[in-house]
């Protein structure tokens, strides 16, 4: 039975799962959800995710939401297919992957997402980007990236010398961020830049990036 | 070798780990971190967690931070001790635990924490609580709790008919929230109230709650 992913190929959280599916060499059917007509707030979708957010994964009778939880499930279920993303056989490495997944979730995304939102989404809604919000978050993001720079001077990837979900989860927002005028925050940090160049040219991501046209002219 | 937990018994993220350690029947040494003198921003602490946040767990040579990642590690390492908190032998149940852990992390905490912060912390810093922030988040929290009410009408706990990390992670913030004037948001929802009464009287939590004196007169 083919995996069904409900979402949008421009959405950061949907693409987070799509990249993982490609890394694990899994076929899937992408079922578009029309956010503009609020299809995600209708009963049929709310029955799959009561919070009304994309993505949702259906694997037979199992229905999952929250992109990072979906990816942990995929990484565990298909641990012997494609690239190993969570090191399930090594308790300490697996724990370190989880630590840096939480860093992405609680330190990185909360600072990078308002910048991407203000730069790309606010204008679509007829609002001027709030430069104060952008500036405050650029400062916070710089501090987070200083920690990444030190970390990545010792290991090739965030959780160690192996690519994992901890790295993968950074791809969608960073991809959009690199199209803003502030990409130097990444490019000016030697080890962060090398890490970004490495993870953003993996074939599993390149397949997905083609559809991430949000913000393009 | 005894587990070392660096943190504070009033901190929500430190107590999240302490509760887990008690559930897993693990002895540990709590090493206080003096946040008031910014001990957490000094080199000795930053070497353990470069983001300067509590808690940090040391298990022999392994150093971990981010409370939810620490708890996943403890739940996996000590899966045969104390209460099973992540259902590691059942892939679908384990995935559902992760989904509701992410819900706590991305839907629940971001709405409940500003309320607790404004009510208890702002006055300590000489600021009046911002009632607009409180009201906005009470409205959002009510919507999240509506989903919980529906969910908990079908299963006894968030991930199923078993207590898990998904429930446990709610304890610290909800405990403080129940001391605010808005506890009716929990008490007026029948199934949420029954769930709260159940999870908040577990012995592992009662041991920790004694030290959660923040906001007491």
TrEMBL record, chains A, B:
Listed InterPro entries: Glutathione-S-Trfase_C-like (IPR010987), Glutathione-S-Trfase_C_sf (IPR036282), Glutathione_S-Trfase (IPR040079), Glutathione_S-Trfase_N (IPR004045), GST_C (IPR004046), GST_Phi_C (IPR034347), Thioredoxin-like_sf (IPR036249)
Catalysed conversion reaction: RX + glutathione = an S-substituted glutathione + a halide anion + H(+)
Enzyme class of the recorded protein, top EC level: transferase
GO BP annotations listed: glutathione metabolic process; toxin catabolic process
Every GST C-terminal domain range: 90-217
GO molecular function terms attached to this record: glutathione binding; glutathione transferase activity
Family matches, as PANTHER family: GLUTATHIONE S-TRANSFERASE F13, GLUTATHIONE S-TRANSFERASE RHO
Protein's name in the database: glutathione transferase
